[in-house]
Specification:
Blueprint (H helix, E strand, L loop, with lengths): L7 H10 L7 H13 L1 H18 L1 E2 L6 E2 L13 E8 L2 H9 L5 E5 L17 H9 L5 E4 L5 H14 L5 E4 L15 H9 L6
Parallel strand pairs: 3-4, 3-5, 5-6
Antiparallel strand pairs: 1-2
Length: about 200
């Protein structure tokens, strides 16, 4: 068993950093050492920011976004189109769409996708609350912005079936050749989807 080269507090910091996505034990050690070397500029402000975040951050009871207010800033923004709801799997997907400045409507975070093998069913996701939001009226379109995986598409079909009676238009993201993409580097599924969903040249 390797001998520890640092005190328990530093080892604890490394262990917690190693639990972050994309950081293994070695990367966590490097990150911890960098934080320690920049204690006043990074470690102390980071610790303070994390303490505030842990105390203030809540999950929006309307859409499932994370913010420091409930309802969140997006749900209370009067400039947003209340008639459009964009359904995403996770908060990270919501943030990605916001960075792209592609959405002017509201969101609904499912918290995952249907996955029987992993024991994730409809009751484990925010599907019932989505159906309730749309059924309450005032929603003209629901955009299913879920990933193009088997689980994502299964979830999209399940949601579509349960929203059929609401009268809202159900749409989904286009799948195909990405901007800047080269055909030779794309997989067969993406190419086939691009051909099936071809549009008029403008």
């Amino acid at each position: 068993m390797p001998t520890s080269v640092a005190g328990p507090e530093i080892e604890r910091l490394i262990q917690l950093l190693a639990k972050l996505p994309g950081l293994g034990p070695r990367s966590a050690r490097r990150a911890a050492l960098h934080l320690i070397n920049k204690k006043d500029d990074l470690l102390v402000p980071l610790a303070s920011a994390m303490a505030v975040a842990a105390d203030k951050i809540v999950v929006c009871s309307t859409c499932g976004n994370v913010d420091t207010a409930d309802p969140c800033m997006i749900c209370t923004d009067p400039r947003r189109d209340e008639t459009t709801i964009v359904v995403v799997e996770e908060v990270a997907d919501l943030w990605a769409l916001e960075r792209a400045d592609a959405v002017k409507g509201r969101y609904h975070v499912l918290g995952g996708v249907l996955s029987p093998l992993d024991g994730i069913g409809p009751d484990d996701l925010g599907i019932a609350s989505l159906v309730a939001r749309v059924s309450a009226g005032g929603v003209g379109e629901v955009i299913l912005a879920v990933n193009a995986t088997v689980e994502g598409q299964t979830t999209a079909h399940y949601i579509t079936d349960h929203l059929a009676a609401t009268g809202a238009r159900i749409s989904r993201l286009a799948h195909g050749v990405p901007v800047g993409g080269e055909l030779d580097y794309l997989d067969e599924g993406t190419l086939a989807a691009a051909i099936r969903r071809r549009t008029a040249f403008e």
